[in-house]
Each structure stands twice: as structure tokens, then as C-alpha cells.
């Protein structure tokens, strides 16, 4: 029998991906290949509660990397935004106005209009998840590239520099 990993409930279970797709899709294949280890069963109540905390954590990541959650370099499509708002208003009032104003207009047309995108990604657009994963991978590979010998040389150079500075600045020597 399946149970929620948080509360033990066995009803209304959903699949929860521990690593959000906004980050996962930009991870190296070697990490993504273990995706089955990243799925947990949660009841709807626990999943909803978790998502509230997850959004706060994503905001913290956004602040840490100084990169917006909705990506960077989008172009606002003002006309589409106006059409969406108008279509939304029409759909809200559709039943009230149907007999008076909407004669001959197919309801599906308003449904399509409300789905128009308000933003368009320009060529410089960067997804938040891609930026964060790229930044982390650069740091990881930089650290991985340094061999133990390189680390020892850096450590020795730092010690030598500190000793030289102490000798120059200390009258005892």
C-alpha cells in the first residue's frame, strides 16, 4: 500500500519531484539519469503545504543568485495583455451578456484569446533554473579541476606569503 511520506495518509496521493523541473531540466545528464530517486508520494494537503515552503526557498535562491524566478530579458507583449484581460472579462460575464451582446460569437474564440502569452522570450532570455544550475556547475567544475597538488601549492603559497608579510611587518625578525 502507498502512503504519504509526510503524514502517512493513503488517500489523494500525488507524485512530488524533490528537485523542481525548473532546475532539473538544465542539470547534466548524469544527474538527471537518477530521476526515479527524486520522486516521493505525498497527499494533496502535505504537498500543498510543502509547495508554500518550496516557493519561499526558490525566492531565497533567486536572491542569492540575484536572478529573477521568471527568468531575465523578456519582452512584454502589451497587445496580448490587453486582449487577455478583455477576454477574461468577457468570459467572467459571458453568461450575463450571452443573450444580449454575444449573439453569434463562439465561446471557444474567447477561450483562445485568454491563452495568448503576455510575454515573449527575446534572444537574450535566460531561464532562472538554467542560470542557477550553470552557476553551480561552474563552481563545481572549478573545484573539481583543482587537483590535490594544486591545492597544496596554493596552500603553501598562501603560507609563504603570510610568513613573508609577517617578517616584513614584525620588528622581531
Describe the fold and architecture:
This is 3668_t:CDS:1. It comes from Diversispora eburnea. The protein is of the alpha+beta class and 173 residues long. The chain contains seven helices and four strands, in the order βααβαβααβαα. The strands form two sheets. It has a two-stranded antiparallel sheet with strand order 1-2. α4 packs antiparallel against α5. It is flat, with a radius of gyration of 27 Å. It starts with 12 loop residues before the first strand and ends with a helix.
Give a quick rundown of the structure.
With 173 residues, the protein is of the alpha+beta class. It contains seven helices and four strands, in the order E-H-H-E-H-E-H-H-E-H-H. Helix content is 56%, strand content 13%.
How many strand segments? Answer: 4
Overall pLDDT metric:
76
Decide which structural class fits the backbone.
Answer: alpha+beta
Instruction: State the strand order across the main sheet.
Output: 1-2
Low-confidence stretches: 101-105
| Euclidean distance between termini CA atoms | 75 Å
Strand content: 5-15%
Principal-axes shape call: flat
Order of helices and strands: EHHEHEHHEHH
- Sheet with the most strands, sense and barrel status: 2 strands, antiparallel
Give me the Rg, rounded: 27 Å
Work out the helicity level.
55-70%
Number of helices: 7
Organism: Diversispora eburnea
Protein name: 3668_t:CDS:1
